[in-house]
Structure formats: C-alpha cells, structure tokens
Amino acid sequence: MEDETCDLLCLDLPHAEAVRTALPPVPDLEGAAARAKALGDPTRLRIALALATGGPMCGCDLAWVTGLAANLVSHHARVLRSCGLASSRRDGKLVVYRLTALGRELLAVLGVPRVHGVHGVHGATDTVATEPPVEGRPDRRVDLAGPVVA
User: Fold this and answer.
1) CB neighbourhood size of 149 (10 A)
2) pLDDT confidence of residue 4
3) Rounded to whole angstroms, how far apart are CA atoms 79 and 34?
4) HEC secondary structure over 4-16
5) Are the C-beta atoms of 102 and 115 separated by less than 8 Å?
6) Contacts for 99 with CB less than 8 Å, ≥ 6 apart
7) Which segments in the chain show pLDDT lower than 70?
C-alpha cells in the first residue's frame, strides 16, 4: 500500500462519534504519555529492566550494572520516579531505587525480555548491610570508595 489515506471521504458518523466521545481528553492522557515516553528511551528502559531483574539497587549498583555514569543514572532514575515507574529512598549516604508495581506492569506489557532469579552475589564477605535482606539475595555491599567495612 503506497498511499495510506482514503481515496473516498466517508464517515460512519454514529460509530465515529461514539468512539470520539469515549476517548478521554488530552490532559487526562498526559501521565500515560509521560510513562510511555520514559520507557521509550533505551537508557531508562535498561535501568528499569535492571531494577525489575535485580530488585532494589543503589545508584552505584545501577551505574555499574548499566555501564553508565552515576550522575546519568540519577537523572534517568529521576525521570522514572517522576512518572511513577520507580521510587527511591535514602539509606544513609546511599539512594536505593526500586521499580514500582506500575513500572513492572508496563515492562510486562512491553514484552521486554528479562533475566530471572538474579539477586546478588553469594559468598561475598567484605560488605555492609544496607537494607533488609530479600529472600535469595544476601544483604551485603562492598564500599568501593574507601576501606572495606564489615
């Protein structure tokens, strides 16, 4: 099909009017559009996928996992947070990000491939607990900025 416009102007007025009145007004769609736009960026989609795969992670972990600078991860995570796809909490000097239920649902709808069962590295000993343990994921962390803390 070369030209994707109708050659004949016709209108099924009752059907078209029913559909038009059923649509929400444009301002009511802004939140959904912002969420779609947020995950439309490959970097944010990768960060969201990392959170869906690994569970809650601090910005340092997300930067390492995604291969991005920490300030770039922070910027993209803020966009995900602003449209309700992620949340964050401060834990001392760390900011821990987590995907919201809405974020997980939207990823599922997109059909993004996901690695299952990745929850931390077992056997690490030079770490500090930063949050309550998640089943199958040790609550251990390495402090790369300073001496090993136990």
Assistant:
1) 10
2) 83
3) 9
4) CCCCCCCCCHHHH
5) no
6) 48, 51, 52, 85, 86, 107
7) 1, 114-150
Residues 6+ apart with CB under 8 A from 150: 125, 126, 127, 128
Q: Determine the pLDDT at residue 149.
A: 41
CA distance 75 to 134: 26
Number of neighbouring beta carbons within 10 Å of residue 67: 8
Instruction: State the residue for tokens 């922070």.
Output: 74
Q: Which pLDDT score is estimated for 132?
A: 45
Q: Identity (one letter) of the amino acid at 120? A: G
φ/ψ of residue 72, rounded to 5: -70, -40
Find all residues with CB under 8 Å of 94, minimum gap 6, and list them: 58, 59, 60, 130
Residues 32-75: tens digit of each pLDDT: 999 999 999 999 999 999 999 999 999 999 999 999 999 999 99
